[in-house]
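User: Sequence recovery, please. Input:
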């Protein structure tokens, strides 16, 4: 039995910049790989089939792990070199805006590529990943990437990781991504303002130069306004995170996880203790 860590992502910036005729939306975002992860264990089987085992029985039947296996098998014209059992232990919340399903899918692609000795390069894996879901290509390489299009256009930021300290607060609710995008459409928000364009540029500059003040001044998520209007508890959590000593707070993805950003380890520790005293489920994370 081998084990593989399937890491989450956070969004320090997420704007919905337009809507295509197909109905899909264009985005501009900064994705960062985070240390919160699911564990995927796998072993060979003698059935010549791929089997997905979900210990907590929380994955949908047509989950992205299965889709990933199907897509890579399709690229081999249906040939399966040998069967593998995948056992998933979820820690990344479903519906939390942390990309858990997409990360799991990318992990399956990379595991099968290695175990079946396919020798697919990064671009080939990304091509398959685009057929699975918009966020999946990011997880082929991870790190920190600017993300455009519907999420399939990714550009790595080759720089050191800025020094700051993060927490994730997990609410007891899930936010449906399609429902969140519908709220964007209902409020005619699928566009980019000059101010939003400027904020993204400044955030990238701050990230590259390790300018903490510039980073915390420009984190942003367009989904907050319509999603918070539907789920007041998320707005309350964000305010509590800021009151705990965080210098900035932002929702990840289309929700529902709330991110807190602290300047020092000590401030984060104090913030976690305060938030936990309120009964919140809090997880310290790093980006890498």
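Assistant: Recovered sequence (288 residues):
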């Amino acid at each position: 039995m081998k084990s593989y860590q399937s890491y989450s992502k956070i969004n320090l910036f997420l704007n919905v910049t337009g809507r295509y005729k197909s109905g899909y939306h264009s985005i501009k975002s900064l994705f960062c790989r985070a240390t919160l992860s699911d564990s995927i264990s796998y072993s060979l089987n003698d059935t010549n089939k791929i089997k997905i085992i979900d210990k907590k029985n929380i994955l949908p039947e047509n989950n992205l792990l299965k889709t990933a296996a199907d897509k890579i098998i399709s690229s081999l014209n249906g040939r399966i070199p040998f069967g593998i059992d995948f056992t998933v232990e979820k820690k990344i919340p479903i519906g939390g805006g942390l990309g858990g399903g997409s990360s799991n899918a990318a992990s399956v692609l990379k595991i099968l590529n290695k175990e079946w000795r396919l020798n697919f390069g990064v671009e080939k894996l990304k091509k398959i990943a685009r057929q699975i879901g918009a966020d999946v290509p990011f997880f082929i390489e991870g790190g920190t990437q600017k993300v455009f299009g519907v999420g399939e256009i990714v550009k790595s930021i080759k720089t050191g990781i800025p020094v700051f300290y993060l927490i994730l607060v997990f609410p007891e609710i899930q936010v449906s991504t399609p429902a969140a995008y519908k709220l964007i459409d209902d409020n005619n928000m699928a566009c980019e303002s000059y101010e939003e364009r400027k904020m993204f540029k400044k955030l990238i500059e701050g990230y590259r130069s390790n300018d903490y003040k510039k980073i915390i001044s420009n984190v942003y998520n367009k989904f907050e306004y319509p999603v918070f209007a539907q789920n007041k508890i998320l707005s309350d959590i964000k305010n509590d995170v800021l009151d705990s000593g965080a210098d900035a707070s932002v929702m990840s993805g289309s929700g529902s996880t709330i991110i807190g950003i602290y300047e020092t380890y000590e401030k984060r520790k104090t913030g976690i203790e305060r938030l936990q005293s309120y009964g919140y489920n809090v997880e310290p994370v790093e980006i890498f």
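Residues 2-156 form a domain with the Ribosomal Protein S5; domain 2 fold (CATH 3.30.230.10).
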